[in-house]
Amino acid sequence: MSDPNMRVGSSEGFEKDNSGQDASWQWSRMRPWMRIMAEQALPDFMHHRVDASDIVQQAMTEAWRCRGTYLGTTTAERTAWLRVILKRTVLRQQERLLGAQKRDMRREVSIDAVLDATSLRLERFASDPSTAPDVKAEKVEQVIQVTTALEQLSPDHRQVLMLRHFEDLSHEIIAERMDRTPAAARMLWIRALKSLREKLASSDL
């Protein structure tokens, strides 16, 4: 369930400015990548109390407020900057829920490790010809395109790809998670990969 205290601002400002002076930022284009990073960074105890989309909304709001301090020019620099803001957002909510009075460096190191691992999985997934053969771009741009395509899939297709490629689960365990037979889970995975390839081939991501 989403935590109502996480509702900060709205996305209207991003969308309005996305077509104006700061159109080069392409804020909405970064959301799918940030959502995956937030989903993986949230500790287990937070998943039923805070929604990853709310984490992304708050992080994007902070990024927009601080955009004047951003000096980067590339997508890689932008994602690195947004990742720092996303980590701070997760830490603030974690401390709020735990009632912590001071920063716990162990939590910060743990979140960094999860974000590092997620980044590596995303890069591996985006550059694998068997999963995303139509993506021809710089490494970070590949990741943005693939996460955007993932966001456009059906919930079942997105879930089976996340379980298989980001949690490294077997088809048997995925079948249990999704209440299907192993054969049905494998066929769902195959259809999901096909749908992902079609999204990447047909859309301007």
Mean pLDDT rating: 81
Rg over CA atoms, rounded to whole Å, is 18 Å
Approximate shape: globular
Content of β-strand: under 5%
The main pleated sheet reads as: none
Low-pLDDT ranges: 1-24
Distance between the termini: 30 Å
Helical region count?
9
Secondary-structure element order, N to C: HHHHHHHHH
Domain unit count: 2
Percent helix: 55-70%
Quaternary status: single chain
**Helix/strand-derived class?**
mainly alpha
The total beta strand count reads 0
Description:
The chain has 205 residues and is mainly α. It has 2 domains: 4-133, no CATH class; 152-205, Winged helix-like DNA-binding domain superfamily/Winged helix DNA-binding domain (Arc Repressor Mutant, subunit A, Orthogonal Bundle). 66% of the residues lie in helices and 0% in strands. It has 9 helices and no strands. The radius of gyration is 18 Å and the shape is globular.
Topology, element by element:
Layout: H1 12-18, H2 27-41, H3 52-65, H4 75-98, H5 105-127, H6 139-151, H7 155-165, H8 171-177, H9 182-202
Helix pairs in contact: 2-3, 2-4, 2-5, 2-6, 3-4, 4-5, 5-6, 7-9, 8-9
